[in-house]
């Protein structure tokens, strides 16, 4: 049995029983931790043939776990029109015009990250500007949050969307004064009308881009992701795993529409597998930026607009109940306070049903209830989250990126938004992630946002600083908290004997460095199962 001994380190284990150590030993065969303690204690476990690695006093923490990411979508961002820097509809159209000039006629032009909230007029864009920019190409551009799709006339024609097309039950087709589609589709029931006719991406390109993104995760110290995507991503991950090229542990969270199919998928779900299927994702609503988050009261300045429930309430309840009985993780996207209430109603009903149907002594290994985002929630529903044991899966960079639109669209309600410290103090479990490609997946930037409550790239004052987390709490959310959210706390999240040897080596002591410099702390190395997958030591 080969052993790797990491010595002379400053190791924060995130294990309450042994919170600090100088060294650790990892079995390279199983990838599991054999010992954690002083140099002498670990050397005694290693024996004469162990590989010795001198950490030279550098800080080690458990590998970062991104509990909410869309990796293939992140990978494709570099290949498509990126409108993040555009300040107007016209600027986006110019990018499309430039792409059309080098794209064969008839081929799709896709892109993302346009944000009307950053434009001076704040208006929804129209198909007319895209028609002028690319008359010979169908165009489909997702908004920054991914819940709006801006299209041109050619795309509408291919999708057979016209004045007679009814709005879907849980989405909307924005229209002009004559009733014709204006060029913007809201939420998945509407956007899929176009996505269903887009030419599928090239498999080889998808593979290459995914490999590149996995390497970027390793450079950021990320050793596990909860990837919220569909069967295309699952198949790519499976192939990369089979060829020994995965290099990051992946837990898939699949669309709710695949619930019945999950038991037939050929994934072993072993405790040490690089690839697992954890559960399902349910959309309860839209987003703040698109003003489609489901609200208990209207958006400011938009009387009567309480957003969109993305799934009928009864269907939500039925889906949560079935997934509960299958012992699956259930992740529910809930940004608005009405969405959170509907989600919690479904969870509470499922728990009651389970008590009536099953022997409560039978353990559930994988069942976890999660609310994704939890950006605005009523105080009484926060208390319900605590009582029901529901995890808050949060993405702290949203708090600093959304500060202006939260004040604009929620008015005084924004003061209780992104309430991370309140949740933590109440005992609600926190799991942290990125929601990339919407925002950055760099854990150090996200920990900075969680603890300082501002974007490290700006000099604006902290936003709602009373909701800032401590560095220890934020680090816990990216390690043990995220592992718990994936029902993997017995194997990940802390540097504990018997757990997987996944760790990050940082240049500076993350618990002692000035908080203002957390985002500048460099990842020196990433360790997966005791093996170096990035950097040097």
UniProtKB/TrEMBL annotation:
Pfam families: Amidohydro_3 (PF07969). Residues 51-534 form the Amidohydrolase domain. This is Amidohydrolase.
